[in-house]
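// run 5 | inverse folding | seed 20
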């Protein structure tokens, strides 16, 4: 995830004319493209939430998934991450931004799974990993941020890999 949410201007100070001036375009250009400030912020947020690198290889499915989940938690639960998540959801009532953010997680989980399958490991399906790891983390970030920790995501990963 890229850093620096709305650098240089407090969130409350953002306006379409200010953004247009910084971009060297007229406000009408921004209104034509995005319609309003919230839609622009949603588009920026979705782009900023895109992972910059493929998930790291730590030698096993469990280690790869734990490392990815820990990084996911750290980035998404940061002050900047939460702002981006809320903007991505608020600025796109049709859900396109949320779907793109979900696709980013799917891409990362698929890469981890392909690598693990190549090592001969059994890999849960991506939807199961979304339901058992990503969904609870996102719910907690947005609605119950207390209790979020490395231990929490590692328990989720363990349950996803050993669902018995």
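// decoded
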């Amino acid at each position: 995830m890229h850093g620096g949410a709305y650098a240089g201007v407090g969130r409350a100070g953002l306006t379409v004319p200010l953004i247009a001036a910084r971009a060297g375009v007229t406000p009408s250009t921004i209104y034509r493209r995005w319609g309003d400030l919230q839609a622009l912020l949603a588009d920026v947020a979705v782009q900023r939430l895109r992972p910059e690198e493929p998930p790291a290889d730590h030698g096993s499915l469990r280690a790869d998934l734990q490392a990815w989940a820990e990084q996911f938690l750290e980035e998404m639960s940061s002050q900047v991450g939460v702002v981006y998540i809320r903007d991505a959801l608020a600025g796109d009532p049709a859900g396109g931004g949320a779907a793109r953010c979900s696709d980013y997680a799917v891409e990362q989980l698929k890469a981890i799974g392909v690598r693990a399958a190549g090592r001969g490991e059994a890999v849960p399906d991506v939807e199961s990993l979304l339901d058992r790891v990503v969904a609870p983390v996102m719910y907690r970030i947005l609605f119950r941020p207390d209790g979020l920790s490395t231990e929490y995501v590692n328990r989720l990963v363990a349950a996803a890999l050993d669902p018995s």
